[in-house]
Amino acid sequence: MRLKDRNIPFLCLTNGGGVLEKAKTSQLNNILDLPKEYQLTSEQMILSHTPFQEFAKDYKDKNVLIVGGYDCLNVAKSYGFENAIHVTDYHKKYPFIYSIFPPRDITKDEYESMKKLYNFNVDPKDAVSAVLFMYESDHLGRDIQVVMDLVLANNGVPGHTEDYNLVDHKQNCKLIMSNADFLYSSSFSWPRFGQGMIKLCLKNIYRELTQKELNITQYGKPEKVTYDFCQKRLEELAKNQGISEPLSTIYMVGDNLLSDIKGANQAGGVWRSVLVKTGLYKGELDHQNPAHYITPDVFTFVMEHS
Fold first, then answer.
1. What is the number of domains present in the chain?
2. C-alpha dist (Å) from residue 13 to 48, 118, 150, 260
3. Within this chain, do residues 38 and 135 fall inside the same structural domain, yes or no?
4. Strand positions, DSSP E, 54-173
5. Is 74 exposed, middle or buried (0-12, 13-18, 19+ CB in 10 A)?
6. Tens-level pLDDT at each residue, the chain (306 residues)
7. Could you give the count of Cα atoms lying within 13 Å of 77 in the half-sphere of its Cβ?
8. How far apart are CA 80 and CA 54, in angstroms?
9. How many CA atoms lie within 13 A of 17 on its CB side?
10. Residue 250: enclosing H or E segment and its boundaries?
11. How many other β-carbons are positioned within 10 Å of the β-carbon of residue 41?
């Protein structure tokens, strides 16, 4: 409330995702129980995949495969990926691509019928130009198989024997991930695996098969591209709030040394990192990426610096 009263632009940046920014904003407003005049807007909510909006126009007429919960398909289409297809739907269309288990939401009999209807080669018109990981996989074995097939395929069309050349393989299908977190905290007492685990699996499998390194475009904290996107969004918010002067300082306030603090330090320029002694903070300090400020909590820092 103090930030809004003082006309200071701010964002909520998270490595979470899988839903529309509008839905996440509504959820946070309900949790915080903010008065209507102080409620957050969707423009202030930056999810791990929000920066994907920047390059959606490059894939306007191209097929992209979406990995994550099924809601991610709606998110991708809202960004402008008009020919997005969810990995679940791709599997339903080509069930033989991962035949250990039938695709979800169909019966075994339907699955057997589908196998008879389709050729065992993928239609060239369904060539995939890029794979977008927008959230954690909800069917890990299938998703790793399908993604590796697309990465290894010639021009995003797996299944053609003559194209299966691991020795001189050249990666044509782009792989884009929204979150590099290997572990994350949940309601369970032990940490859970995140996209970083999937990234490790894919890189090791590709290296084992081709003796080469898999090219992955990474977004999310602590990647500089995400902080650059946030700075641009903050500048837009400042302009809309009638602030004409350039932003002199951007404070990244967070509890995660490896994402929040490291990311702000790597971004450099006007960014300043602020470590709060709450949440993930356990008393450790990263001497390679020390925070510019250490504070008991967000409220204390805001009151002292605004």
1. 2
2. 8, 44, 31, 9
3. no
4. 63-67, 84-86, 128-133
5. middle
6. 889 999 999 999 999 999 999 999 999 999 999 899 999 999 999 999 999 999 999 998 999 999 999 999 999 999 999 999 999 999 988 888 887 655 666 677 776 776 666 556 788 999 999 999 999 998 999 999 999 999 999 888 998 776 677 888 889 999 999 999 998 878 888 888 999 999 999 999 999 999 999 999 999 999 999 999 999 999 999 999 999 999 999 999 999 898 999 999 999 999 999 999 988 777 877 788 899 999 999 999 999 988
7. 10
8. 10
9. 34
10. strand 250-254
11. 11
Which residue among 218, 251, 274 closes a domain?
218
**101-139 burial code (b ≥16 CB/10 A, e <16):** ebbeeeeeeebeebeeeeeeebeeebbbbbbbbbbbbbb
Global confidence as pTM: 0.90
Structural domain span for residue 6? 2-48+222-304
Are both 148 and 259 inside the same structural domain?
A: no
Q: How many CB atoms lie within 10 A of CB 180?
A: 20
Q: Look-up: residue for tokens 């996440």?
A: 24
Paired strand residues for 252 = 273
